[in-house]
C-alpha cells in the first residue's frame, strides 16, 4: 500500500459498519476500526470527526446539493413538481445500488438513541434546505415549509419501504409514497 | 409553606424558565432554580429527572392521550377526520392560553442543540403514537404512517405560526395549516 490511500474512506467505512454489527456501536473503538481496515487512526481522523460520523458521511453535502438542484429546476415548475424531480434525482444519483449497505446502516442506527436522534436531525436539516430553496424560487413561506415537509416525509417513508422489500427502485417507491400521501390528504374531512 | 407543595412543579418550572432566559440554559444549575423557587433540590428531583425535563414535562403523557383519543373516535371517521379531531382536542385542551409560556420555551430551545434534538424526538414519538392508533383502528400501514406524519407536520408548523403571530387560536391555525398542506399536495405534478 502506498502513502496515498484512495479507497481509505470506503475501507474504514466498511470496517466500522462490520464491527458495529458484530459487536455493537458503543463497544467499537476507532483503533479497532483502523486495525480491521489495515490503516492508522491518523488516517481515520483525516476522514471522520468520530466513529458516529462514519454512518453519516457524505450527508453534509445534501443541503448544498438540494440548493443547486432547486436553483436549476425550470422556473415554470410548481412546488410538487420540483419535489418530485428532486427526490428522483437524489434517489437515483445517491442511493441506487446501496440497498444492502443502507439496511445494515439502519440496523446499527436502530440500536442507539444518539444515532436515532442524529438521523432525525438530518431529515430536519434536509427539510430546512428544501424550504430555503423554495423561498429562493419566490414561493411563499407557508407553501415552502409544507412542500418541504411533504417531500421529506415521502423520502423518509419511501426509504423505509425500500429497505423493507426487495423489489422496486428507490425512485419508484418514493414516487409511489408521494402519490399515497397525496391520496391520504385528499380524503374529505367533513 | 407546609410540608406539601401542591404548586411546587409550576413554581420550579417558572423559576427554571426565567433563569434559562436570563442567563442561558447551559449556565443554569438545579440549585439556582430551587433557590429562585424557594424549594429544595430534593423537591426538584421529585418532579424532574434533570433541568432539561422541565421544558418537556407533561409531554410523556401525549402518546397515551393520543391512543385514547383515537380509540374513542367514532369508527366511521376516516384518517384525516381523526387527525383533524385529535389536533383540535389537543390544541384546545393542552395549549390554549399557553402562548406566552410557549414562546419563552421556544426561545430557550432554539439556543441549544441538545434541546432542539429532544424537541424533534418528541414529534417523532407523537407520529409513532398516531400511527399505532391508526393500526389499531384497522388502517393499513402506509396510510397510517403517512396520515400520522401529515398530522405531525400540520401540528408542528401550526404551533410555529401560532407563536409567530398574536391572532387566532391554535385550533384554528392548525386547521388552516392542514388545509394548506392539502392544497399544496393537490397540485398536479405532470
CATH topology of the largest domain in chain A: Tetracycline Repressor, domain 2
Shape of chain A: elongated
**Looking at this structure, what is the CATH superfamily of the largest domain in chain A?**
Tetracycline Repressor, domain 2
What percentage of the residues of chain A does DSSP assign to strands (E)? under 5%
CATH architect. name of the largest domain in chain A: Orthogonal Bundle
The biggest beta sheet of chain A is recorded as: none
Number of domains of chain A: 2
- Distance, first to last CA of chain A: 69 Å
* Assembly annotation: homodimer
| Structural class label of chain A | mainly alpha
Per DSSP E runs of 2 or more residues, the count of β-strands of chain A stands at 0
The helix/strand series of chain A, from N terminus to C terminus, equals HHHHHHHHH
Largest interface, and how many residues on either side? Answer: A-B, 31 and 31 residues
Q: How much is the average pLDDT of chain A? A: 92
- Rg of chain A (CA only): 19 Å
- Return residue spans of chain A where pLDDT drops below 50 for at least 5 consecutive residues: none
Give the helix proportion of chain A (percent range): over 70%
* Assigned CATH class of the largest domain in chain A: Mainly Alpha
Report the total helices of chain A: 9
DNA-binding region (chains A, B): 29-48
InterPro entries (chains A, B): DNA-bd_HTH_TetR-type_CS (IPR023772), Homeodomain-like_sf (IPR009057), HTH-type_TetR-like_transc_reg (IPR050109), HTH_TetR (IPR001647), MftR_C (IPR041347)
Organism (chains A, B): Umezawaea tangerina
Protein name (chains A, B): TetR family transcriptional regulator
Amino acid at each position: 500500500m502506498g502513502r496515498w490511500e484512495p479507497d481509505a474512506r470506503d475501507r474504514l467505512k466498511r470496517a466500522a459498519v462490520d464491527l458495529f454489527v458484530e459487536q455493537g456501536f458503543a463497544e467499537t473503538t476507532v483503533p479497532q476500526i483502523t486495525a480491521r481496515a489495515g490503516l492508522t487512526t491518523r488516517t481515520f481522523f483525516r476522514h471522520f470527526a468520530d466513529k458516529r460520523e462514519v454512518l453519516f458521511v457524505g450527508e453534509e453535502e445534501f443541503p448544498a446539493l438540494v440548493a443547486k438542484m432547486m436553483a436549476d429546476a425550470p422556473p415554470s415548475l410548481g412546488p410538487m413538481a420540483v419535489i418530485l424531480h428532486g427526490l428522483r434525482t437524489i434517489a437515483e444519483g445517491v442511493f441506487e445500488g446501496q440497498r444492502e449497505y443502507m439496511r445494515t446502516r439502519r440496523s446499527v442506527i436502530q440500536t442507539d438513541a444518539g444515532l436515532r436522534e442524529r438521523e432525525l436531525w438530518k431529515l430536519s436539516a434536509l427539510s430546512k434546505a428544501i424550504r430555503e430553496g423554495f423561498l429562493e424560487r419566490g414561493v411563499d413561506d407557508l407553501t415552502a415549509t409544507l412542500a418541504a415537509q411533504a417531500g421529506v416525509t415521502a423520502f423518509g417513508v419511501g426509504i423505509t419501504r425500500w429497505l423493507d422489500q426487495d423489489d422496486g427502485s428507490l425512485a419508484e417507491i418514493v414516487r409511489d409514497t408521494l402519490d399515497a400521501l397525496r391520496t391520504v390528504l385528499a380524503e374529505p374531512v367533513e
